[in-house]
Specification:
Blueprint: H1 12-36, H2 39-46, H3 50-56, H4 60-74, H5 86-98, H6 105-115, H7 120-141, H8 147-165, H9 171-186
Helix pairs in contact: 1-2, 1-4, 1-6, 2-3, 4-6, 4-7, 5-7, 5-9, 6-8, 7-8, 8-9
């Protein structure tokens, strides 16, 4: 899948460099956690000059937000004709998004930290991520859905992400809680 950089359009070679950097970021997070992650350390592991890495990523938060964006964008949306009812489709969307990083606790916590950052490049990615999640939820809700219900589901997801990032349970528990809460909203 070809991803457009948050800072500029990429050539094939540049896209390969960004791919190396995002993969290396996950490895550094596994070993060092978010506190130990630096763009410089990621560049070293990826075999890329630090100055080159900084041309693509303005901060470690930007790098982590890009990792999450890539995972979300690569994950196929819930098919409309999957045989599930509205609640089942919404729950499937929320569960899928919540579990994108559930098996990687260091990455999951880093994503929460990164998405709360003020870096303009993170803000751009946060908006793209938010729109993608909104679109998936709107599709799951179906035609003529109540915009207030959509917003409640977005708030549910965002609040759950923050709670999980603060350590009030695992991301798998967060996915279970999202399911229960979504059912309450939709009933």
């Amino acid at each position: 899948m070809n991803f457009e950089s948050t800072r500029r359009r990429l050539t094939e070679k540049q896209a390969d460099t960004v791919d190396k950097l995002t993969k290396a970021a996950v490895e550094v997070l596994r070993e060092e956690g978010f506190a130990g992650l630096t763009v410089r350390s990621v560049a070293g592991l990826a075999g890329v000059a630090p100055a080159t890495a900084y041309t693509y990523f303005s901060s470690k938060e930007h790098l982590v937000a890009e990792v999450f964006w890539r995972r979300l964008a690569a994950a196929p949306p819930q098919p409309a004709d999957d045989g599930l009812d509205r609640t089942g489709r919404v729950v499937a969307v929320l569960r899928h998004i919540a579990l994108l990083v559930a098996d990687e606790p260091e990455l999951a916590g880093a994503v929460t930290n990164a998405l709360l950052g003020r870096d303009p490049d993170v803000e751009h990615l946060r908006a793209r991520i938010g729109l993608e999640i909104r679109d998936r939820l709107a599709t799951a809700l179906g035609e003529g859905h109540d915009p207030d219900v959509l917003e409640a589901l977005e708030l549910l997801y965002a609040g759950g992400l923050v709670r999980a990032g603060m350590g009030y349970g695992s991301y798998a528990q967060f996915a279970d809680r999202l399911e229960t809460s979504a059912k309450l909203i939709l009933e």
